[in-house]
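Question (not urgent): is this output format expected?
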Amino acid sequence: MPAFRRRRLYLSQAQALERHGLRRREDFFRSVARRVEATGTAQAGQLLAAARIARDAHGCARAVQLLEAVPEQGRDEATLMLLGHCLAQVGRTAEVRS
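Got this back:
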């Protein structure tokens, strides 16, 4: 699927979820994940919340993707700790910062 079409599809899915209400925790996660996949960005608080949901669901690879999308100035100690934990869980221990 071409990149433009994929981005448009992901954005429309995120908008549909938000329009119908984010009633379940998975809906919020899917909405944020689709926005990140489409645009590469989302609000830092939303990214962190979605990454926590992904980690709790044993989706550390997805959590790493979401946490890496958080801008550098939006990363605090809690975000870096969660990123380090998830990187270790997916076997990318060389990237874990001290």
